[in-house]
Amino acid sequence: MIFTVAVDGPAAAGKGTIGRALADRFGLAHLDTGLLYRAVGARGGDPVVAAQSLTPADLARDDLRTLAAGEAASRVAAIPAVRAALTRFQREFARRDGGAVLDGRDIGTVICPEAEVKLFVTASPEVRAHRRWLEVGGDQEQVLAEVRARDLRDTSRADAPLKAAGDAVTLDTTMLSIDDAVQRAADLVRARLARARARP
Ligand code: DC
């Protein structure tokens, strides 16, 4: 069965948590596509060469979750040749047999416009910054400034900017607990999965 769940949205909206929970609950493979861009940024040197030669070891680095790595990822993600180098791997992952959940920025718009489920997970910048700050600590105002800067860069780049696909279901997690957000996403996936399984 081919079945893709695209989970897009801005930084720290809850995409990763929701994506992982959906994959666990429905037995689907999961790919955090932000990790690819983080690994490219963390390698240093020419980002296009890094994107073309990414290895599993690059993705296993333990410094990919830092604010600095997110910032570097957002910068290299604006380079069209970097995005092009990472496209095929993501497309193949999305359409692998058995189904897959991918979270990122452009999964429902560019990587897999034919995805059976498209979720756009969002929340106010203040709430997202607070969640990020709980994870990484430091100065709260600075974390908010970085969230805003990253939103601006991710939404305004020319190639595959962050935006909801026209047929995406928006899940605003500003006022939702993570359990409620996962529940709503799971209800949608369950319904679409039943439809996909009934396909001849
Ligand atoms: O989801 P994240 O915070 O790990 O993503 C880090 C950066 O990578 C993000 O600011 C933009 C970029 N990115 C992207 O351009 N496209 C994706 N599908 C995933 C991430």
Q: Could you give a short description of this structure?
A:
By secondary structure, the chain is an alpha/beta fold. It is built from ten helices and five strands, in the order βαβαααααβαβααβα.
Largest sheet: 5 strands, parallel
Instruction: Give Rg in angstroms.
Output: 16 Å
* Poorly predicted runs: none
Categorize the overall geometry: globular
What would the average pLDDT be, to the nearest integer? Answer: 95
H/I helix tally? 10
Into which percentage range does the β-strand content fall?
A: 5-15%
Percentage of residues assigned to helices:
55-70%
Helix-strand pattern: EHEHHHHHEHEHHEH
Number of strands: 5
Structural class of the helices, strands and pairings? Answer: alpha/beta
Strand order of the largest sheet: 2-3-1-4-5
Distance between the termini: 11 Å
What compounds sit in this structure? 2'-deoxycytidine-5'-monophosphate
Question: How would you portray this structure in words?
Answer:
It is built from ten helices and five strands. It is globular. The model has no long low-confidence stretch (mean pLDDT 95). Helix 5 runs parallel beside helix 9 and helix 8 packs across helix 9. It starts with a strand and ends with a helix. Bound molecules: 2'-deoxycytidine-5'-monophosphate (DC). The site of 2'-deoxycytidine-5'-monophosphate has 14 residues, from helix 2, helix 5 and helix 9.
Give me the secondary-structure topology.
Elements: E1 4-8, H1 15-26, E2 29-32, H2 34-43, H3 47-52, H4 56-59, H5 67-76, H6 80-94, E3 100-104, H7 107-111, E4 117-122, H8 125-136, H9 140-156, E5 169-172, H10 178-197
Parallel strand pairs: 1-3, 1-4, 2-3, 4-5
Helix pairs in contact: 1-10, 2-5, 5-9, 8-9
Bound molecules: 2'-deoxycytidine-5'-monophosphate.
